[in-house]
Every structure is written in structure tokens, then in C-alpha cells.
Design goal:
Strand content: 5-15%
CATH superfamily of one domain: Photosynthetic Reaction Center, subunit H, domain 2
Number of strands: 7
Order of helices and strands: EHEEEEEEHHHH
CATH topology of one domain: Photosynthetic Reaction Center, Chain H, domain 2
Largest sheet: 7 strands, mixed
Shape: rod-shaped
CATH architecture of one domain: Alpha-Beta Complex
């Protein structure tokens, strides 16, 4: 059976006690009003049921802590005290020391239970649980023999059941708004490409050759020449080749730009309101003295 410290099991446990904290309350013997120690912590089981109060014996036995089963404790918040049922300071001294650094196993708990099972403690617990009952208390008691593999705290209600007569708690409830978030799809953006055509113009300077025939009168015109030089003939006497440039236009693909696609998160606050209910205490006690703390 695994046990947990109360605050480790439920960090907000004080809310169930209206802000009061059982830790720090003084522990006193029932009837003799003799202080035994101080509540140092509370141990609960896996379902959150109180099983033990860790009692620091303080300066009486400096530094020693012992376990008090919750069934042997009577919590009085009005007096800020815890009263032990059927336990004295001398018997608390016989209890094995509680060390939170060591495992809390069945054998250790059996040593603790053995102290509280002593006949004198058993008788005191019966008498303290019904102090106003005039019926004779049955003091016969046989030390039980339990199986370590099947033992449960319900086997010994005198040790682990809270005395409802001594612990009456009325819980008032209220509703509160729980804000949560749901992620839903609002749309989809598709990124694609399309090809558009356009007419591009480019200016290319080119060269064309042409023949220019220019007739001029030489400076020695009229001067006689020899028959050999004056070679009268027909046909082609000169050849000139003409060239021109033509534009060579072709296309090539080049990188124009990059498009980067990413998502960004915009933050916003959405306010909502709803009607909640709360229970309030109504006391109906006409002409009776009632004190509300």
C-alpha cells in the first residue's frame, strides 16, 4: 500500500478545509489534556483517504516523529487541536520512529499498529468514541492475525475510519468557469504557379553594307594617255561584296524571384461570460444562540 504526503497528493488541499491547515495543530491526549506533539504532516492512500497523522514529539523527544492513525485522532478546529484517542505520551514513546527517507512498508506499519492494538489502547479508543453512551464497553480484544498480501485499511476501522461524530463537515459547492482552448481548422491556403505570356521587345543594332558610286573629275583630266593604258573593254571590271547583319533572337530561362511560404501565429484574447451558481449557508435556529466562525 503506497502512501503519499498530503501536499504531494493534492497541492490545493487547503481549499477543502476553508483555508485551514491541519498541519501545525497541537496534539493532546483525550481526557488528560496532555500535549503529545504537533502535526507535522498527513499521509494519504492512493484514493486520497487520510490514513496517518505524522506527529512531531518536539522537545519532549527531540526530533522524533511517530504515526497516529486517523481513526485515533479527533480534530477540533475550534480549539486548533488534535486529540488522541487511547494514546498517552508514554505509549507514543514506544512507537517506532517515522523517517520519511525510508520506505513505509507493511512491516513498519505492523509495528505501529501493534502499539495501538494493545488492549489498554483498544479499550480507551472504544470509550472515547462514545463517551456519552452508558452501555458497558466490551473490553475483550484478540490481537488479529492478518495476511500481508491481502491486508487493507478497511480491516481495522477502529484505526483508520474517521469518527464522523467528531468530524462533521458540511461542504458548500460553487460553480466556476473552466477556460480551455480547442484548435480547429479555419481554412486552407494553396500555393501554386501559373504561366503568363507577354510580348517582350528588344532593340538590336545591325549593320548593312551598300555600294556608293561617286563620279569625280580627276585633276589630270584631258592629259593624253598611251594606247596601252587606254584599254577599252566591256564586261565586269570591278567586284564588290556587300554584307549586312541580321538579328539572332532566342529565349533563355532565368531565376526571377523566390517565394517563401510560412505561418505566423497572431495572439488575441477572447472574453466569455456565463452564469455560475454558488451554495451559501443558511442557518435556521430561531431564538437559539448560534456562533458562526
Amino acid at each position: 500500500m503506497v502512501l503519499y504526503k498530503l501536499e504531494d497528493f493534492e497541492p490545493s488541499y487547503r481549499d477543502s478545509f476553508e483555508g485551514r491547515d491541519i498541519k501545525g495543530l497541537g496534539v493532546y491526549t483525550q481526557g488528560t489534556d496532555e500535549k503529545v506533539g504537533t502535526v507535522n504532516d498527513v499521509l494519504v492512500d492512493e484514493e486520497g483517504h487520510f490514513r496517518y497523522l505524522v506527529v512531531d514529539l518536539g522537545f519532549w523527544i527531540f526530533g522524533k516523529k511517530v504515526l497516529l492513525p486517523i481513526g485515533r485522532a479527533n480534530v477540533d478546529y475550534n480549539a486548533d487541536r488534535v486529540y488522541t484517542i487511547g494514546l498517552t505520551r508514554e505509549q507514543a514513546e514506544d512507537l517506532p520512529e517515522f523517517d520519511e527517507r525510508q520506505a513505509l512498508d507493511y512491516d513498519y506499519e505492523e509495528r505501529v499498529r501493534g502499539i495501538y492494538r494493545r488492549p489498554e489502547n483498544y479499550t480507551r479508543s472504544l470509550e472515547a468514541s462514545a463517551p456519552l453512551d452508558t452501555t458497558p464497553v466490551d473490553t475483550s480484544y484478540t490481537t488479529p492475525n492478518y495476511n500481508r498480501d491481502s491486508y487493507t485499511y478497511e480491516n481495522e476501522p477502529s484505526l483508520y475510519n474517521i469518527n464522523e461524530q467528531d468530524h462533521q463537515t458540511l461542504r458548500l459547492y460553487e460553480e466556476r468557469l473552466i477556460a480551455s482552448k480547442q484548435r480547429r481548422k479555419t481554412g486552407e491556403v494553396t500555393i501554386g504557379k501559373r504561366v503568363e505570356t507577354d510580348t517582350a521587345r528588344v532593340a538590336v543594332p545591325i549593320e548593312k553594307e551598300r555600294v556608293v558610286i561617286e563620279r569625280v573629275t580627276p585633276a589630270d583630266a584631258g592629259t593624253p594617255v598611251s594606247a596601252r593604258e587606254a584599254n577599252f573593254r566591256e564586261g565586269n571590271v570591278a567586284r564588290v561584296e556587300l554584307y549586312e547583319e541580321t538579328p539572332d533572337i532566342r529565349k533563355e530561362a532565368v531565376l526571377r524571384e523566390e517565394v517563401r511560404v510560412r505561418k505566423v501565429v497572431d495572439h488575441d484574447t477572447v472574453e466569455a461570460q456565463e452564469t455560475v451558481r454558488r451554495e451559501e449557508l443558511e442557518v435556521n435556529a430561531p431564538n437559539l444562540p448560534v456562533e458562526e466562525l
